[in-house]
Amino acid sequence: MMATVILGFAAAGLVVPFTSGAAARAYGDRQTLAAALAADLLEHIIATPYGQVVGAWNGYSEPPGQLVMDFDTGRRYSDPAYAPFSRGATAAYVYVAQQDSAAAPNFIRVTVTIRHNDKPMASMTRLISK
Questions:
Q1: Rounded distance, CA 53 to CA 128, Å?
Q2: One pLDDT digit (tens) per residue for the chain, 130 residues
Q3: Distance between CA atoms of 74 and 113, rounded to whole angstroms?
């Protein structure tokens, strides 16, 4: 009886590192996917003409399971791995320290945020110039 208890503890000690490793790998995979989704949306925003960025992208949001894969056709990601992800973007005109605030701003700050099961997973910010 005592041998069975000791064997159970020993087996648990061997299994724990493997389950911890699997959880860490799954989290890493989600972070990698989130970064790719953020970069994809950010690149699409950057390709938008400067004068249309704020109007088109400020407040943009894609709910979980509705992420757009191809903005030209509207095709969405269909793989179940994308279902828990949502993404959004903000865009705002900004002044830099050297710029005269009486003139029109020369930059737009764009931030793309990716969430997984409503928890922040990745965020990218970029300045776009005229």
A1: 9
A2: 666 766 565 556 655 565 566 767 778 889 999 999 999 999 999 999 999 999 999 999 999 999 999 988 999 999 999 999 999 999 999 988 887 878 888 899 999 999 999 999 999 999 999 8
A3: 20
Helix (H, G, I), strand (E, B) or coil at 8: helix
Could you say which DSSP state residue 99 is in?
S
* Cα(127)–Cα(108) distance, integer angstroms: 6
Q: Strands, DSSP E only, in 3-118?
A: 60-62, 68-70, 75-76, 85-94, 107-116
Strands (E), 1-130: 60-62, 68-70, 75-76, 85-94, 107-116, 119-129
Q: How many domains does the chain have?
A: 1
